[in-house]
Specification:
The chain has two helices and ten strands. The mean pLDDT is 84. Strands 5, 6, 7, 9 and 10 form a five-stranded antiparallel beta sheet that branches. It folds into two domains: 100 residues, Immunoglobulin-like; 32 residues. It comes from Melanocharis versteri (Fan-tailed berrypecker).
Length: 153
């Protein structure tokens, strides 16, 4: 029997990607109950292939005893697109189908923070300018003939 493909979901985190893997279902039953691959094999090996601009990199093979589990690949370049494919094998069964490629861009913590600060700064500057103009106008420093835009009045 061929194992796989596992179900794979990826989400981005700052300079990393978080991969959630759900083991493929088995077709073996015991007393009518569908057995999981963990029920059958106790533990399984999984191997993640990471694809980016630099090419494909196979990650070291790891073991799992859980049906659903997560792993994080860190130290990635922010804003760069990464794709992953996962293959699951058992010690007694090396026949397996890899998961389809799933892609996501690694987040950048710094860039996101900078964007929020820039927007907040622009809003503050606009409000200060509006307050100064309104104050100058109200104090009579500007001739009354100059009408302020309706939003400032």
């Amino acid at each position: 029997a061929t194992l796989g493909p596992p179900e794979v979901n990826i989400t981005s985190c700052p300079n990393c990607i978080n991969i959630t893997i759900k083991l493929p279902t088995s077709h073996f039953r015991d007393k009518g109950k569908l057995l999981s691959l963990i029920d059958i094999y106790d533990e399984l090996d999984y191997e993640i292939t990471l694809k980016s601009l630099d090419g494909e990199h196979k990650r070291p093979r790891q073991k799992t005893t859980e049906e659903v589990f997560s792993t994080v690949i860190e130290e990635l370049y922010p804003g760069r697109n990464y794709c992953v494919s996962v293959v699951v094998t058992a010690s007694l069964n090396k026949h397996s189908t890899p998961s389809p490629w799933k892609c996501v861009s690694a987040d950048s913590e710094a860039r996101r923070g900078y964007h929020e600060v820039a927007v907040a700064g622009a809003v503050c500057v606009s409000l200060i300018i509006a307050a100064v103009l309104k104050g100058v106008h109200a104090a009579g420093f500007l001739p009354r003939e100059i009408s302020l835009p309706q939003t400032l009045v």
